[in-house]
Specification:
alpha+beta; 4 strands; four-stranded antiparallel sheet
Length: 89
């Protein structure tokens, strides 16, 4: 079976949320199991915010963006990075 051009593409985002809202953000991402992977960037620890690195397969781009847009109704989100990258693994 031949791979399509999108088979190896990933959505990569970094968002910034207020520290007091980070647990709710993590819970929201976790409750959508399988949609994306996320981790907190170490540099943001000890700050008044958390920078969260999010990675998802490109086929979930619209769903991830919709989830974050919906989350923005409750909390402040700053988008630090949004890009499409090739998965080299």
């Amino acid at each position: 079976m031949e791979n399509t051009k999108q088979d190896n593409k990933l959505l990569h985002m970094v968002i910034r949320v207020p520290k007091k809202e980070s647990a709710f953000t993590y819970f929201t991402l976790e409750s959508n199991e399988g949609l994306c992977f996320y981790s907190t960037l170490q540099e943001s620890m000890g700050q008044g915010h958390r920078d969260i690195d999010i990675t998802a397969h490109i086929t979930f781009k619209e769903e991830v963006e919709a989830l974050l847009k919906n989350l923005e109704k409750s909390i402040q989100i700053e988008y630090l990075l949004s890009e499409i990258i090739e998965d080299k693994s």
